[in-house]
Amino acid sequence: MGKILITQVLLFAFGVSPALAVIGGGDVHLPSRGGDVLFSHEAHVAGGGLKCQQCHPIPYTNPKQHKKVTMKAMAAGKSCGACHDGKTAFSVQDDCAKCHKQ
Fold first, then answer.
1. Fold classification of 24-101 (topology level)
2. CB 77 within 8 A of CB 85
3. What is the pTM of this model?
4. Where in the chain are the domains?
5. What is the tens place of the pLDDT at every residue in 5-60?
6. What are the backbone angles phi and psi of residue 12, rounded to the nearest 5°?
């Protein structure tokens, strides 16, 4: 009985460890007519030093509740534009290729 429990715990630990190695929610693919965007949690959390609570639940909730946002809305401070305003981080009106991949 003890060996079975230990085996189950080890299998669970090894199965979950790779998932925990992904920072935040991993990469999020956002389709866009202007070129798809690959949002990297790692770049924002590890690279940018952000904490989850700085973005969740405001301005972002979760993928099921996320609504499409226009570039005009972002320039007005919505979605990515909440931080990408040219002061906190590069502006959403800068180089499109920083986010959009063709």
1. Cytochrome C3 (3.90.10)
2. yes
3. 0.70
4. 24-101
5. 454 544 444 444 444 456 778 898 889 999 999 999 999 998 899 998 888 888 77
6. -65, -45
